[in-house]
Amino acid sequence: MLETAVEIVRDEGTEALTLAYLAQRCGVTKPIAYQHFGTRAGLLVALYHQLGALQAEAAARALDRSASGQMGIAELSHTLSTAFVDCILENGPHFSAISAALVASAETSDFRHAIRGEYIELYRKALAPLVDMPPHLLTIRLTAFLGGAELLMETVSRRLATREEAIETLSDMLIHLLRP
């Protein structure tokens, strides 16, 4: 059902995504969709979780590749930025639409913050050995990085910046934020 939900968002926007419409598109009854997701907000949470997990996996793979080579901050920043940009581009602009729909729902804002927190923690663990910065300050700076990254990807999805420009910008931003 999640794949069909992503198709609906990609093709028709988040406004078209309802549990009744999802059930119809999947060829199941409405009660099945409601039992599975509970509410539309529950469906949005499931979609965001799926796409957030893809981002975290991309970052973890990039970090695994970098762990063996003792990368410096510049190389690691580029690796993480590339993984972030490529994952968002691979999953299309519907990720931004789902994220925006979650912001609009008070019911889902805690979940969205928790997923972001997990992603920030992944980055923090990777970068902490390379920077001389209190953990709390590193977390704050990574929060700023992620917020900027999300907004930049909206610009890329509107074709106002290229993949390469996004990677370079994010990498430069991360390097700057990691300075004491």
Q: Main attributes?
A:
Tetracycline Repressor, domain 2; Arc Repressor Mutant, subunit A; 80% helix; 180 residues; 9 helices; 2 domains; mainly alpha
Write structural notes for this entry:
There is one protein chain. This protein is mainly α. It folds into 2 domains: 1-38, Arc Repressor Mutant, subunit A (Orthogonal Bundle); 45-177, Tetracycline Repressor, domain 2, CATH 1.10.357. 80% of the residues lie in helices and 0% in strands. The chain contains 9 helices and no strands. The relative contact order is 0.12.
SSE diagram, text form:
Elements: H1 2-12, H2 19-26, H3 30-37, H4 40-67, H5 73-91, H6 94-103, H7 106-127, H8 135-157, H9 163-177
Helix pairs in contact: 2-3, 4-5, 4-6, 4-7, 5-8, 5-9, 7-8, 8-9
- In terms of quaternary structure, what is this? single chain
Put simply, the count of helices is: 9
State the secondary-structure class.
mainly alpha
DSSP E strands, number: 0
Write down the secondary-structure element order. HHHHHHHHH
Low-confidence stretches: none
CATH topology group of the largest domain: Tetracycline Repressor, domain 2
CATH class of the largest domain: Mainly Alpha
Helix content: over 70%
CATH-scheme architecture of the largest domain: Orthogonal Bundle
Report the β-strand fraction as a percent range.
under 5%
Question: How far apart are the first and last residues' alpha carbons, in Å?
Answer: 46 Å
Major sheet attributes: none
Shape: elongated
Query: Over the alpha carbons, how many angstroms does the gyration radius reach?
Result: 18 Å
Instruction: Report the average pLDDT across residues.
Output: 84
